[in-house]
Amino acid sequence: MPFKTIVAILQNERADARVLDCAIPLAQRWDSHLVGVHAEALPVPYTSATGFPDTEFLQVSAELNKERAERLRSHFESRVGNTGLSHEWRSLQTFSADSALSSLASVRAADLIIASQNEENSDSDADIGSLVYDAGRPVLVVPHSGPVVTNFKRIVVAWNGSREAARATFDALPFILEAEHTEILIIDAPEAEGDREADAGTDIAASLSRHGAEVSVSMASSKGATIEDVIQQRLTDTAADMLVLGAYSHSWLRRLIFGGVTKSVLRAGAVAAFLSR
Fold it and tell me: pLDDT by residue (tens digit) across 112-163?
């Protein structure tokens, strides 16, 4: 089933072009309705030296926010308007000014959310981690650098048998069916009697194959490396252009102490990442 409603999270002018470079071709491919979402901060009242609200500061802040939102809306309309796509713009005002968190009500009615990967040491990016965790819908994260790919030919599915991995894999089925090849990557498969370790990915591979996907299963051992590093190396070795990942499939305590694959992908992944949970 194609993605018929796509929401593009447009947090700032630096990242919105990359998000639209991905969202527009996909919307054209599936004749989707494309929604652009952006949030600006509600002006926070400050007091002057005399103790009264600084109305001039409030007015200037409101005008700057309005101008930025208008620039983003104008860019969205100019990019999408000439395509003939069904589309709409949603401009929001919240205290967080986070377009991801502010858009939760909108994205839960979408088939697919597209957002930009966070940049290292940036405090102005949208909270994509919370979006993935709370949206209940799949999120396609566009890398913050390098070419923007929309025809995904080689896909790697990070498979650990979890509920989140299963959800992400089947949510990504429209992409998997279009791909030339999909690899089910299993890292540090649990030991089991007989050949069950070798068969760990057989069921999911067979299920995808019945849909018509070209699928294989690959085993890898971390050998002391992090799971993130093993995944990134496999993406490089296979020249993959998409990673499918079940997000936050470990306990909150483990993520708090050790971090996690999801966090690493949202910050440093080199290819597009399709996340769901």
Answer: 999 998 776 555 567 888 899 889 999 999 998 888 999 999 999 999 888 9
Q: Would the CATH topology of 5-142 be identical to that of 154-276?
A: yes
Q: Which helix (H) or strand (E) holds 154?
A: strand 154-158
| CA separation for the pair 159, 173 (Å, rounded) | 14
Domain ranges in the chain are 5-142, 154-276
Q: How far apart are CA 65 and CA 225, in angstroms?
A: 45
Q: For 36-84, how does the pLDDT look when each residue is reduced to its tens digit (9 = 90+)?
A: 998 887 666 555 555 555 565 556 666 776 787 889 899 999 999 889 9
- Of 200, 128, 130, 138, the closest CA to residue 169 belongs to 138
CA separation for the pair 127, 115 (Å, rounded): 10
Do the beta carbons of residue 148 and residue 21 sit within 8 Å?
Answer: yes
CATH number of 5-142: 3.40.50.620
CA–CA gap between residue 123 and residue 184 (Å, rounded):
35
End-to-end C-alpha distance for the chain, whole angstroms? 19
| Contact present, 222 and 188 (Cβ < 8 Å) | yes
Indicate the fold that domain 154-276 takes in CATH: Rossmann fold (3.40.50)
34 bridge partner residues: 6, 87
Q: What is the CA radius of gyration of the chain?
A: 21
SS (H, E, C) 114-146: EEECCCCCCCCCCCHHHHHHHHCCCEEEECCCC
Would you state the structure tokens that stand for residue 13, as one six-digit string? 């002018």
